[in-house]
Amino acid sequence: MKEYRKIHKNQNNADKHIERIVNMGGNVEQKVENGEIVLIYDFKKTNENPLALGITKHEYESQIKLQTSFYFPIHLVLVYEKRTESFNVKAMLKNTEIANANFDYSIDLSGWAGSNIMVNESFRRIGIMSAIYDWVEQETHTRLVPSNFLTEEAELFWKSRNKK
Question: How many domains does the chain have?
Answer without folding.
Answer: 2
